[in-house]
Amino acid sequence: EKQVEVSNQTLKADEAAYRQARAIVAEARAGYWPTVTAGGSLTGTGGGGGRVGGATGAGTGVGPINEYDLTLASATWELDVWGRIRRTVESNVASAQASAGDLAAARLSAQTTLAIDYFSLRISDELQRLLNSTVDAFTTSLQITRNRYAAGVAARTDVVDAQAQLETTRAQAIAVGIQRALFEHAIAVLIGKAPADFAVAPVRLQTAVPEIPPGVPSALLERRPDVAAAERRMAAANAQIGVAIAAYYPDLTLSASYGFASTALSTLLKSASQIWALGPALSGTLIDGGLRNAQVEAARAGYDQTVANYRQTVLTGFQQVEDQLATLRILMQQARVEEVAVRDAEEAERLTLNQYKAGTVAYTSVITAQTAALSNEQTALSILQSRLTASVTLIGEIGG
Question: Which residue in 119, 133, 252, 376 has the fewest CB atoms around it within 10 Å?
Answer without folding.
Answer: 133
